[in-house]
Design goal:
The longest helix has 31 residues. The strands form three sheets. The chain has an eight-stranded mixed beta sheet with strand order 3-2-1-4-5-6-7-8, with helices on both faces. Helix 2 packs parallel to helix 9 and helix 13 packs across helix 14. The chain is built from 18 helices and 15 strands. The protein has two domains: 228 residues, Rossmann fold; 234 residues, NAD(P)-binding Rossmann-like Domain (Rossmann fold). By secondary structure, the chain is of the alpha/beta class.
Length: 491
Amino acid sequence: MTTKAQRAQSEKTMNHVDRMQSKKAARLMGRIVDRTARIGVLGLGEGGLPLAVDLAGAGFTITAFDTDQALIASINNGRSQLPDVLRVGLEPLAGRGKFSATSETAALANLDIVSVCTSTPADWAMSAALLPLVRTIEHVAAHLHTGMLVIVESVMYPDATDDVVLAILEGRGLRAGRDFFLAAAPERIAPGNPLVARRKIPKVIGGITHDCRRLASALYGTVVDSVVSVSSTRAAEMVHLLEATFRTVNTALVNELALLCDRMELDVWEVIDAARTKPFDFMPFYPGPGTGASESQIGGAGLWTCRSTSNEEPRLIDVAERVNATMPFAVVDLITEALASQAQTIRGAALLFAGVSGKRQLDEPDSAALSVMTLLAARGAQITYSDPQVATVPASAWGGGARLDSVPLTPAALVEADCVVILTDQIGCAAENIVRHSRLVVDARNVTRRDDRKIFRLGASHRRARLRRIPLPGPPSARPKRSLAKSRGSS
């Protein structure tokens, strides 16, 4: 059933048909309005597959492309492991002939619109980051035809659509805005989060020309309630960079505050919980073992590129990157402190990581967790982990030199571990069992939310030291005295 928002958007889109600056754009706009445009989505990850499903649900015929043959077979059989897609289901769409997956890029020649959702894992030079995208765009260019709309959802640095994508697509003689249309609509996704409906997430879109932007806006208007048009593809890319670095900078702030609170014998979690009661000018962020790759890498790499092209030095963000990069070492220090309380060292210690996935219901390990595991393995620790979402951590994914398989989080496994490490907040109700059966717990996410002699919390490890001092025997005169400076600092 068509919603009021959809009807309003359709009426608005129909008005745009007459406002197109070229006949080619007007024809494609008409196909978008009546849902006869044939659409391809390249890259079936956390962003691409949900987008393809939403467009098919809106009435378009979708051809989805990926290089993973097992994934293609699974999708064509109506199965997907992504929680965002599980809630909708692929079988009804495939049954109506509205959705199919393939690895044959020759099918691109029959499409009206192509959305590129290829993953771009960033490095600081951006060269390796763009290689998958460049290969995908080269496939599109080989089958580019007059009247086609190409939309880039892949995350890139500002200027990449103009400098990289446009150059490849125009390399065969066609011109953007005249012969074909090109727009940037950087992905905005909250994978695995059932509280954030994809339709409610506004879509930011920039185009090479007005027609490019209007066509892309009309298409996304069929699957989201709000479209935000910006002046250019560069502006759209900068919006995403701002969103990524916003989290990076604020996470760095609370990470540094966590280290400061620990030295000042304060509880950073108590401080943040109290501060968040302020009804204005405050947004809570929380410390942890570091930021994930999607934020820190594309933010850092994008800013590196901005620096090289604008001669401006993003000093604040550079500092934030460095602060976040130190957090895996801070967690290792906390684990060292916890083991030392039991007269143990990291070398030879059996460490059990309770949860390694970065986001709820996703099957990929968090890069910060992998960094901590790598540092500990290099110091001689024996690493195991338990995570029902991540069955295996390949040897290539971390620096431990061996594949890891998830083990059940049983009382026996908890008792056998010298220390249980919590680096993600995805363990839910398992926290009670962890505390009950473990000898030592290092909690970098405040999942345990308690003071206990065997719990070391990031940003509040002093709490355990205070508990340790409580049962001191003997009369007050026999107890160790604190220095005057220390007493004043804690008053």
